[in-house]
């Protein structure tokens, strides 16, 4: 009898320990295409951190494409636990059309839910054979440009708005002249790839074009990446006017509640603000939101005149309606 009681106690104890161990979970992070190397290195850091903190095994899976294309995929059923995009519009649409998350998602994490930012730069061939220094050089006849498509890529939208901002400033706010400048710039675009990484492939690997318009993190990464054919044969140029390109993040409320992954999903995004993640962001040439980390990399992140979408253009909702909706200004100006 005593033996049976001990055995029953041991079984209960084992079951209690087993039930106290959290079940493994899987998160899906739906992100824009040029973040692939960053998250490839960040995910193992988070997994180890969470294992130590919560004794729970986590697998983070990724989906990458143009930011706006990813937003549409989530609307169409891609089961994201979290989204890490490059413009507010691509998260707002999930709240407004899909009702997948709260409309106040910007308030859920620091810095309006943007753990790092970037800006727009030019990437040119080594030695800068075309002498490209600023926006005016890109509209010269015969110049060949690679730009991600503003209809599918946040990268492309920021590039378009940076060119528009430069033309407005140069011409004292004359929108007619801004239209003409942007029209001439896109007349020189030989390929509109769907996303930033596809545009990189066209320029850096296929050897197309004289200049690539892309995020600072992508331009500096390409310039420094020894795995690329032609390593050392690219030069990044900061134009006189560029854009503040925030990288917003959000938990997809409807999906995490369905999956039972809310706690882990929130911890995953909060981890992006830790010193380790901020240092990794700087390594991949994203400008960290942590001022101490940013100051340690002042030799990499040079001062830039960055236009803010909210203050200059009235926010992304207005930008979308005026410039990028079907039949709006971009469609009027761009003739393939």
CATH level 1 class label of the largest domain = Alpha Beta
CATH-level-2 architecture of the largest domain: 3-Layer(aba) Sandwich
* CATH domain topology of the largest domain: D-Maltodextrin-Binding Protein, domain 2
Question: What is the terminal separation in angstroms?
Answer: 87 Å
Number of strands: 14
Strand content: 15-25%
Helix/sheet category: alpha/beta
Give me the Rg, rounded: 23 Å
Helix content: 40-55%
Q: Report strand order across the widest sheet.
A: 7-6-8-5-9
Count the helices. How many?
17
Mean pLDDT: 91
Indicate the low-confidence ranges by residue numbers: 1-5, 7-19
Total tally of structural domains: 2
CATH superfamily of the largest domain: Periplasmic binding protein-like II
The biggest sheet, with number of strands, parallel, antiparallel or mixed sense and barrel status, is: 5 strands, mixed
Mass-distribution shape? globular
Task: Describe the 3D structure.
With 336 residues, this protein is of the alpha/beta class. The protein folds into 2 domains: 22-117 and 246-296, D-Maltodextrin-Binding Protein, domain 2 (3-Layer(aba) Sandwich), CATH 3.40.190; 120-243 and 305-333, Periplasmic binding protein-like II (D-Maltodextrin-Binding Protein, domain 2, 3-Layer(aba) Sandwich), CATH 3.40.190.10. The chain is 49% helix and 17% strand. Strands 7-6-8-5-9 form a 5-stranded mixed β-sheet. A 4-stranded mixed β-sheet has the order 2-1-3-12. Strands 11-4-13 form a 3-stranded antiparallel β-sheet. β1 (25-32), α2 and β2 form a beta-alpha-beta unit. The longest helix is centred in the first third of the chain and has 19 residues, at 2-20.
């Amino acid at each position: 009898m005593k033996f049976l009681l001990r055995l029953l106690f041991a079984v209960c104890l084992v079951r209690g320990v087993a039930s106290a161990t959290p079940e493994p979970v899987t998160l899906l992070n739906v992100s824009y295409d040029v973040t692939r190397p960053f998250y490839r290195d960040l995910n193992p850091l988070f997994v180890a951190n969470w294992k130590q903190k919560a004794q729970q095994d986590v697998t983070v899976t990724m989906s990458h494409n143009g930011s706006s294309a990813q937003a549409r995929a989530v609307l169409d059923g891609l089961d994201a636990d979290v989204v890490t995009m490059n413009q507010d519009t691509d998260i707002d649409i999930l709240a407004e059309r899909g009702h997948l998350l709260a409309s106040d998602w910007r308030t859920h994490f620091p810095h309006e839910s943007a753990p790092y930012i970037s800006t727009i730069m030019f990437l040119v061939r080594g030695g800068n054979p075309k002498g490209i220094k600023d926006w005016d050089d890109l509209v010269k006849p015969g110049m060949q440009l690679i730009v991600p498509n503003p209809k599918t890529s946040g990268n492309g939208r920021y590039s378009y708005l940076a060119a528009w901002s430069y033309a407005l400033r140069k011409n004292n706010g004359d929108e007619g002249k801004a239209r003409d400048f942007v029209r001439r710039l896109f007349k020189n675009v030989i390929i509109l790839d769907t996303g930033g990484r596809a545009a990189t492939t066209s320029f850096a690997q296929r050897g197309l074009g004289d200049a690539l318009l892309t995020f600072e993190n992508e331009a500096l990464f390409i310039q420094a990446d020894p795995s690329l054919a032609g390593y050392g044969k690219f030069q990044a140029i900061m134009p006189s006017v560029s854009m503040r390109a925030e990288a917003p993040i959000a938990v997809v409320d409807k999906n995490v509640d369905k999956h039972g992954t809310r706690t882990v999903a929130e911890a995953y995004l909060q981890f992006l603000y830790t010193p380790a993640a901020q240092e990794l962001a700087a390594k991949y040439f994203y400008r960290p939101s942590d001022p101490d980390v940013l100051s340690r990399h002042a030799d990499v992140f040079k001062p830039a005149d960055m236009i803010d979408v909210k203050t200059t253009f009235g926010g992304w909702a207005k930008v979308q309606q005026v410039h990028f909706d079907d039949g709006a200004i971009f469609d009027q100006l761009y003739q393939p």
